[in-house]
Structure of Probable transcriptional regulatory protein DL346_10840:
Amino acid sequence: MGRKWNNIKEKKASKDANTSRVYAKFGIEIYVAAKKGEPDPESNQALKFVLERAKTYNVPRAIIDRAIEKAKGNSEESYSELRYEGFGPNGTQIIVDTLTNNVNRTAADVRSAFNKAGGRMGVSGSVAYMFSPTAVIGVTGKTSEEVLELLMEAELDVRDIIEEDDETIIVYAEPDQLYAVQTAFKNAGITEFTVAEQTMLAQNYVTLSSDELPQFEKLIDALEDLEDVQHVYHNVEYPDGE
């Protein structure tokens, strides 16, 4: 795949310095997942996925428990999952996934963020076809050969296995393989993951000039700062060391 996940992860981490915002977004996501089925991760796969991802972001147990207890209660608060697509500087492609209890507010906020930062909203399907839904799982303490061997033993045929510069091994798999890959690692004694989530990876990445990059980052920051936005995906490759 030739895509450095840690490059994405580090950039995201720098924007997620406001941990209270990150925790609040996870609280909503956990609540929504818990309301979809039983509020028990052992019988609710969607909830299990969210909790696994929350663990990689060090979300406090209190946040998780509060969201699950809210789902168990009589709360009738409902959220809609909406996706917006658009373009940034130099035709860069952006996908914005939201969870909202006020569709009109969210649509207006996302459109405003695009417009103020020199981007523009696109119609549904104008960008998403250039991205691939992908499961990304990262581990340390194993070589790529060892990871390949244990996945083969589990009869899992994944898309790619990449060794990052920091010796993290990143596995790219089909979205529905996330749980199976994690289970294979856990059966091999690996219970800690640097990343474990379903994401959208661009099929082709672009590098912006030093003049274009600040405007693009302003747009991404504006989108990620919106309370209803859960995930922002794009096709910009950051140069190593940026």
